[in-house]
Amino acid sequence: MSLVEKVLTPPAVRRNAHKAKLLWKRLFFWPLHAARKPRLSNFAGAPRSTLPIVRLRLEFDHGCGGGDSSLSVFNSIKPLTRRSRAVKGARAFAPTPMVIDLREHQGFDDWAKKVSKLTEGKYRRSANKARRLGYVTRTIGIDSYKRSLHALTASKPRRSKGVVVVASILGPPPSVIDTKAPPIPPACPRHWRVDWGAFRDTDDGERLDAYALLMRAGDVVWVQAFIGHGAALTDGVTKLLMFDVMRWLLERRDPAVEGVHYLVHGYAEEGRVGLFDWKRYFAFEPMLLEIGDAHAH
Ligand SMILES: [Zn+2]
């Protein structure tokens, strides 16, 4: 509204216009707000103006040709980042990223102890149960279990982020197959995509029961997908997979995880409360993100 308009518009109309704008914002962003307050109350550091601010370095200028991964991570993380460094805290209508600062943990055992404390040992027991039942996890070739993944996605009609309708109704087209290709070490250790699977032997052979897709750009690993088979969830298979992925990240034996500082798993307000609790119990914490590269797109 220009100054002239302001002078010519009666105050009552101006007030109502402001109210209408506020109401629209409240209605539109209500789910975000409704989820935020109770969820963030689990952490010290709320309100969000006091949350730690993390500067990510995606290393766009690495010159490795790993541009696909850095672009995907950038596109995924961008909506979760602070737009302006001039703004204190986070914008009211921006989501709150859930992050593990891997450097805060001495190693895998340190992190696992924290999870056991947060869950009174429940998650560890759940993962142990899955291992006892014969589930094993490993990295797999990219898109090497596409058909299995289709079945896995369709195995549970209702997911924490909504209803998986298409996958449930339509079977996968014949062109979608399991190549079962072995994983190839990433060309660049700092820009990659790595797929993980959890399997168990059945009468029909090995079955994919949980799947994770992780992408790295610079000092951050982004959880692009993390999903379990509906029939195997009570066996603790997703918990087993998470523990094994974290062991890989925190033991740092693989050169591909050297220098990873942050693991980002979406944001606090998304999905049903079960998804949020899953992150919280695995020691993800709300933090504010900035992209620190000078040459960010
Ligand atoms: Zn690179």
Present the secondary structure layout.
Blueprint: H1 3-8, H2 11-40, E1 53-56, H3 67-77, E2 97-101, H4 108-119, H5 122-132, E3 136-140, H6 146-154, E4 158-159, E5 162-163, H7 165-169, E6 191-202, E7 205-217, E8 220-228, H8 237-251, E9 262-267, H9 273-281, E10 285-286, E11 288-291
Parallel strand pairs: 1-11, 8-9
Antiparallel strand pairs: 2-9, 2-10, 3-6, 4-5, 6-7, 7-8
Helix pairs in contact: 4-8, 5-8
The chain binds zinc ion (ZN).
Can you walk me through this structure?
This protein is an alpha+beta fold and 297 residues long. The protein has one domain: Aminopeptidase, CATH 3.40.630. 36% of the residues lie in helices and 22% in strands. The chain has a 7-stranded mixed beta sheet, sandwiched between helices. α5 crosses α8. The longest helix is centred in the N-terminal third of the chain and has 30 residues. The two termini are 32 Å apart. The model has no long low-confidence stretch (mean pLDDT 87). Zinc ion binds next to loops.
CATH class: Alpha Beta
Beta-strand share of residues: 15-25%
Gross geometry: globular
Average pLDDT number: 87
| Strand tally | 11
Major sheet size, sense and barrel closure: 7 strands, mixed
Query: Which CATH architecture?
Result: 3-Layer(aba) Sandwich
Alpha plus pi helix count? 9
Provide the structure class. alpha+beta
Overall number of domains: 1
What features would you highlight for this structure?
alpha+beta, Aminopeptidase, 7-stranded mixed beta sheet, 22% strand, binds zinc ion
Q: What's a quick, concise take on this entry?
A:
This protein is of the alpha+beta class and 297 residues long.
